[in-house]
Amino acid sequence: MIDLELGPVLRALGKRRSAVSLLVLEVAFAFLVISTLTTTARWYLATASNPMAGHQRDLVNVVINVPAGMTPVDRQTSGLVAEAWLARLRAVPDVVAAERAGTATLDLMMNLPVKISSLQGGERRTVSGWTAAVGPTFLDVIGAIPREGVTLSAIAPGERAGAVVITRCLADALAQGGPRGSILGRTLEAPEVKGRVVGVVDDFLVGLPILRSSHCLAVGIGASPDERNLNFLVRAPPGGANAMAAKLPGLLGSGDATVTVTTFVARKSRYGQVATGLVVMLGILAALVALLALAGAVAVSAFLVAERRQQIALRRALGATRGRVLRYFLVENFIATTLGLILGFHLLLMTFPNMQNTFQGVQLSPSLLWLAAAFLILEGLLATAIPALRAARQSPASVSRRA
Description:
This protein is α+β, with helices and mostly antiparallel strands. Helix content is 51%, strand content 17%. It is built from twelve helices and eleven strands. The protein has helices spanning 6-15, 17-48, 75-90, 103-106, 138-142, 168-175, 241-252, 270-306, 309-317, 322-358, 366-393, 396-402, and strands at 59-65, 97-100, 114-120, 123-134, 146-149, 163-167, 187-190, 193-201, 217-221, 229-235, 258-263. Helix 2 crosses helix 10 (322-358), helix 8 (270-306) runs parallel beside helix 11 and helix 10 (322-358) runs antiparallel to helix 11 (366-393).
């Protein structure tokens, strides 16, 4: 049976409170920072990778580049061109739904939030959120789930002007704690969107995830597009996005326009690239903290070993093996590291409510916490093993001569 020498180890830790306390605090801080960074990165990547409601994997983005001579300047004629292309898209076999969508709509998260106001009975409420002026079936294409009222596509074409649909996040913010149904019928005023609220849909990510208003969106009927590149969003059958993207160029090809078709992948959008870059940055910060923790553990462990060289030599002279000396210091470090992890975990639980207020829907991942704890334990054992092995290899005579 292996003797862990817990009694002598605990007495040694008690005698060196300053150095041991430094090691415990260092481990606690490292665990707190690494766990916070990795949890945030995991949440950010998961949240940012699915901004387009429920049918993202089935969406195809179609960009039609009309030559300069064919691009009308006035909105009315440009709208007719877009409607003609939209009709061709909807006529393609297996196309579930299609709608025009400007580049700004497809990358809402790259825009800044705006002020959105509602007015009813002389009462005005202003909150932050995002707006999008789109075609009447845009919410149906992306798979937004209706909760109250109606969607834009369910309204008669002659009555769609001035109709607005909002997400639950925006409805709750504007209702001021009252029932969401009370928001229906209110007048909404915001850039690009102005009119009467006719419906509420489930939340989906439209803004920067770190903002509390990241799920607050108001959608109204947009003006006819006047971009050189006409953008459309097409929903394919479940699992058929790649097949749809492959066949659309041949079906839509025209000598007068260039058709570019890609599957809608959030991480390849402008915002997706920013989100990926942020996750990489958080990973780099976590790695730097881990390296600093390793350097600190090596320094403290080297100090704890160096000040007991004569004690090590005495134990070696009395018959202690190198393995026993090494085990003694490893047990000592393991106890200090465990205390640091316990402290760090409690600090994480204390700060986690603030994280939840900032990052909507963030959850602690037990696997990430265990990985962080295991890494710090292995890091501490490695940091201790290096100076302990070096000290254990020295002969008692050489240590005595130095003393």
